[in-house]
Design brief:
The protein has about 350 residues and is mostly helical. It has one domain. It contains 15 helices and no strands. Helix 3 runs antiparallel to helix 4. The chain is globular. The chain starts with a helix and ends with a helix.
């Protein structure tokens, strides 16, 4: 049984990787199909798929070579991008609704998750405690930048990462994260459909802005008229009344599920859900420790929530960052293989 363990682990990882190739391939092929039928510009979706794939590959390599240093460097790089890139850092351009605040929140959540993964990957308790400081530093950086949502997201990732240290069965926790992401998606769909109580709807609309809710309702109207193929990739801005009424609109509904449903039909939003499900499945099959896996899972779920109510995935840095974190948390450090070989009886 002991000799069969590594082989069984390898087979499970190959299965998860094969599923990932199939899912990402379908996510790249479907917008090409819908663009051929409906017209539109599939390049944005193709770039997002490429960014996630490249980030995932880089994370797998980095996590295998440097299981502690790579996620720590990723966390620092994420904070550095948030501070130095004008379109990610908070500023006057986001006082009205859309996009940049979500990208900032997503990058800070991913940075906090990477820092927590680095801390849990360390074997020495003193080193682990020291590596918790960068995660706390992400929350402080968010406060300094004036990103309230980024501060809340980073703190949530940090607190959840501390809590998962005692969790031994990752499957139930990952299932709970899937329920959270699905629940938020269902809520924004209900808001767009006007299916929530008036008091709740008024409260949500006050926080989300009436313009954003109007974009969601336009997207849902497109889904009803073009359920299977959508209106075509990148064509939401041409057909949305709410988008045309705002001079600051960027032609997107600021909700990844609703955008894919409107532009690529039901199949598009199903593929988005399957892609997130694959990430959770890959984390479940990961050879890394459960605290590392669940810290990454919490951070990626925060990203999914932010993408459901904002435009975070339209930023290439965010897509790459999500892929890198998933790759880091599903990698198998070479040091573990060396340790197994050294532990085998000789002669």
């Amino acid at each position: 049984m002991a000799s069969a363990g590594p082989d069984a682990d390898g087979e499970r990882r190959i299965g998860a990787d094969a599923a990932g190739v199939a899912v990402l391939g379908a996510c790249a092929a479907w917008p090409l199909i819908t663009a051929a039928v409906r017209g539109g510009r599939p390049e944005g979706m193709l770039l997002a798929v490429l960014a996630v794939t490249a980030g995932y590959a880089a994370g797998r390599i980095g996590g295998a070579l440097l299981p502690v240093a790579a996620p720590c460097a990723g966390a620092l790089a994420g904070v550095g991008l948030t501070v130095t890139v004008p379109h990610l850092a908070p500023g006057p351009q986001i006082t009205a609704p859309l996009g940049h605040a979500g990208a900032t929140t997503a990058m800070l959540a991913l940075s906090a998750g990477a820092a927590c993964c680095a801390a849990w990957a360390a074997s020495a308790r003193a080193v682990r405690f020291a590596l918790c400081l960068p995660a706390a530093g992400v929350v402080v950086a968010a406060a300094v930048l004036g990103s309230v949502s980024g501060c809340v997201a980073g703190a949530a990732v940090l607190l959840c990462s501390l809590a998962v240290g005692r969790v031994r069965r990752r499957g139930a926790a990952l299932a709970g994260l899937a329920v959270v992401a699905s629940g938020v998606t269902g809520l924004i769909w209900a808001v767009a459909d006007g299916a929530v109580p008036e008091g709740v709807a008024a409260s949500l609309e006050g926080r989300l802005t009436a313009h954003r809710v109007g974009l969601w309702r336009d997207a849902l109207g497109m889904v009803r008229e073009h359920a299977w193929l959508g209106v075509g990739p990148g064509r939401f801005g041409e057909l949305s009344t709410a988008s045309g009424q705002s001079p600051s609109a960027d032609g997107k509904p600021h909700s990844a599920p609703l955008q894919l449903a409107a532009e690529q039909g039901v199949v598009g939003v199903v593929l988005l859900g399957v892609a997130f499900g694959w990430l959770l499945y890959a984390l479940w099959r990961s050879p890394r420790g459960t605290p590392v896996v669940l810290s990454a899972g919490v951070s990626l779920t925060v990203l999914a929530v932010v993408a459901a109510v904002g435009n975070a995935l339209s930023f290439t840095a965010v897509s790459v960052g999500g892929g890198v974190l998933a790759g880091l948390a599903t990698s198998r450090p070479f040091t573990e293989d060396v340790g197994r070989r050294d532990a085998r009886p000789r002669g």
